[in-house]
Amino acid sequence: MNSKTQSMKRIEVVVSVDPSDAIFRAQLLITKKKWKVIGEVDRINKYGNQSHCIDQRLLKPFCYCFD
Description:
There is one protein chain. Helix content is 6%, strand content 40%. By secondary structure, it is mainly beta. The longest helix is centred in the N-terminal third of the chain and has 4 residues, at 3-6.
């Protein structure tokens, strides 16, 4: 291994957010100067009707509609 690959780490993060109680998972590549998301950010819990106000399928897991 060279020094560049030794200073890189690949990790998985799981975060929960308010007010939706959504739980998201993503893979990150970490170097000395930046963090980069690898692949998709996935919602790993159900969101039911929380995103009823939006029609875009790709955004639904990330949205929370206030009524």
